[in-house]
Amino acid sequence: MQLPIWAQTALLLTLSNVFMTFAWYGHLKSMNSKPWIIAALVSWGIALFEYLLMVPANRIGFTALTVAQLKIMQEVITLCVFVPFAVFFLQQPLKLDYLWAGLCLLGAVYFIFRG
């Protein structure tokens, strides 16, 4: 059984976002005492895996979705990955603003995927 295109895309984008989030923000906790250039090089190494998943995700998704739909899907997934990362890994407080941002993205999903 093969997953629908949107599901394949969402799965690959989710995995890509996990790497992206660690590449962009993980060094704030785990490499805080290292020089920024070291953190940047490690982040680039992690980001390679992000791109190895993101590029195929967008290519697969583009066979059935528009670029705008791909971008909005990416943003929703980014927030869904970032919030737990910020709360559990970076020990940031869970804010009501995350809910409001999520509701705004739901509006974006509605408008970009309707009709």
Automatic annotation (TrEMBL):
Keywords: Membrane, Transmembrane, Transmembrane helix. It holds the Pfam family DMT_6. InterPro entries: DUF486 (IPR007437). Coiled coil: none annotated. The chain crosses the membrane at residues 6-25, 37-57, 72-90, 97-113. PANTHER family: DMT FAMILY PROTEIN (PTHR38482:SF1). This is DMT family protein. It comes from Halopseudomonas yangmingensis.
